[in-house]
Design brief:
Layout (H helix, E strand, L loop, with lengths): L1 E2 L4 E4 L5 H8 L3 H4 L8 H16 L4 E7 L2 E9 L8 E8 L8 H16 L5 E7 L3 H9 L3 E10 L8 E9 L2
Parallel strand pairs: 5-6
Antiparallel strand pairs: 1-2, 2-3, 3-4, 4-5, 6-8, 7-8
Helix pairs in contact: 1-3, 4-5
Length: 173
């Protein structure tokens, strides 16, 4: 468990499926790969698979918890097998917990966690779908730098076709 200012980051657990049910019924699927309209029956195995992969050394997936309530998630995965020094970060915060600085603080803490648990990590990067200026402000507040826009970077997901995305990066090594 990692402590932030007014929140903790803890490993994703199978029992966190309600977080993803809530996220899937908000605007989170518009900007992430969280499926739309999950219910308990579909969320349980989806979350269990991701929690198990994370526990086995796969992608980092940490729940942002505020006062015992799951407020969102932050994590990172290795996008290129040939370069373990680059991790691609991702995050979401439920609407009721936004505008408190949680996402930026969680991204900063994720960088510290990645540096201490993944030897050789030198860079974190984020892809932010165009049209989501709030995520750009989050990235900037977390110390990321806007590096450009890639056309059709985001594959079709959640009813959207391919979308452009801005690349944000942070050197942590």
């Amino acid at each position: 468990m990692l402590a932030g200012d007014g929140f903790v980051l803890r490993p994703l657990r199978e029992s966190d499926f309600p977080l993803f049910v809530a996220a899937s019924q908000s605007d989170v699927p518009d900007w992430t790969f969280v499926p739309r309209d999950l219910d308990e029956a579909s969320a349980r195995p989806w979350v269990a698979e991701r929690a198990a992969a994370s526990a086995a050394g796969g992608p980092i997936r940490l729940v942002i918890e505020v006062g015992g309530a799951a407020a969102g998630m932050v994590g990172a995965h290795q996008p290129n097998a040939h370069d373990p020094g680059v991790l691609e970060a991702f995050y979401f915060v439920l609407p009721d917990f936004r505008r408190r600085g949680l996402a930026s603080a969680a991204l900063r803490l994720l960088g510290e966690h990645a540096r201490s648990t993944r030897p050789g990590v030198r860079r974190l990067q984020l892809w932010i779908i165009e049209g989501n200026p709030g995520s750009g402000r989050v990235a900037e507040a977390a110390g990321y730098v806007h590096e450009g826009v890639a056309r059709s970077q985001i594959a079709p997901v959640n009813g959207f076709g391919p979308r452009d995305a801005a690349l944000w990066g942070r050197v942590i090594g």
